[in-house]
Amino acid sequence: VYLRAAANCGASPAQAFRQVFLPLSAPGLGAGSALTFVLCLGFYLTPALLGGGRVAMWSTQIADAVSKFANWGAASALSVALLVVTGLILLLMRWGVQRLGSSVGEH
To answer: CA-to-CA distance for 72 and 92, rounded, in angstroms?
Structure first.
């Protein structure tokens, strides 16, 4: 409905997508991306099986540091680094969604 209204107001398909469709779908895209990213952080069995043990994921490094080497210092350092990077990525996603969402009211 909104895309047809934008077309009736003289917007090209590219303008309608950029100024109407994308800002309206940004919260859903951001939430889906954030949920997928957070769920993928915990998977350490799938990369180990598919990569044949040659894939170095942070979660597998943390698990190896604790179970194989009993190196709690390395495991905690990697965990904190993973937590900080995850928090930064989620904040950037939130900022991007808010920025796209705020452009809905401007046009």
So the answer is: 30
Q: Is 9 helix (H, G, I), strand (E, B) or coil?
A: coil
For the chain, the structural domain boundaries read: 26-102
Tokens representing 18 are: 């950029």
DSSP single-letter state for residue 55: -
> What are the per-10-residue average pLDDT scores of the chain (107 residues)?
91 92 86 82 73 77 88 93 90 82 60
String of b and e for 46-82 (b: at least 16 CB within 10 Å)?
Answer: ebbeeeeeeeebebbbbbbbbeeeeeeeebeebbeeb
Interatomic CA distance for residues 93 and 87, integer angstroms: 10
User: Which one-letter amino acid corresponds to residue 64?
Assistant: D
Q: How much is the pTM? A: 0.62
